[in-house]
Model the fold of this input.
Amino acid sequence: MSAKAMNMREKVQALQSTLSRAAKQSLDRRFGALYDKIYREDVLWVAWRRVRANRGASGIDEQSIEHIEREIGEERFLSELAADLRAQNYRPKAVRRCWIEKPGKAEKRPLGIPVIRDRVCQMATKLVIEPIFETNFLKCSYGFRPKRSAHMAMRAIKSAILVKKQAVVIDADIEKFFDRVDHKILVTLIKKRISDPRVIKLIRGWLKAGIMEEGRYVEAGEIGTPQGAVISPLLSNVYLHSFDKMWEQSGIPGTLVRYADDLVLVLWRYGEWTQRKVEGMLSRLKLRLHPEKTRVIEAEPVGVFEEKALQTVRGWIFEPARFKGDVVESWANQTIRFELG
Done:
């Protein structure tokens, strides 16, 4: 690693550490002056290196990583982006929609591909604001977070079943999550920690950028965020952090393990009743469980536990849970008030 690269990375890490410490000192503090940090030379340089390392496809402008390096040059590309951000002239372009296969399924998943310039700006924004939100996120959330992984999520499920002896599992699927993220709710949640209007404007711009598919522009509405944008995983965690808090505040005995928009709840009993409670919590975020893909199952561990991506609870054999009506104890009948955020 060159001296320049090491210096740039160290400066960004120092910035993130400072923001994280400040956020931890007050979990409800709103941060104001953040926008100028997004177009700092070191932040944009680290953002560019991360985007370049992913080697993703080009957006609607058909500019690839190779084209930028060969025809424009890294230094000019970043300096022009910094100048546009500093002058507040930056405007995101529509994302290019493509469709990718879902493993083992006939249906396809829509993927939104921003132009590289927008990906770098989103990554720079993520570098600045993620340390702030990370201080609020709960331990039950594992997806697309620093120092957390799908393997850790699977170990949490394993521990709940083997150690806590929780054998009733709700394998939950949020129906069309990325298509149903409500912009108003999302921005409200972001503003709980970010008060800089210029950062809010950036995020609104990406939400409203629209989609280009086969030469036809589709205007963005008031819901939905492109699945594939650099900033989307962080925004999804901000959005679903409210659900994590609702679950925590409910006092329902059990273990929640969330990996982005995939949920697994491990309980001692009352699976169907808990599922209805979860549906009520998600409805406050204008979300719903997929009626066909969500199931209550009974876990019976056999063989060696396999740690794989958290799409289904793999490495275990499950038998359908049998519930005859809802027999609930006093705690289950309590009326609980939840607060978003």
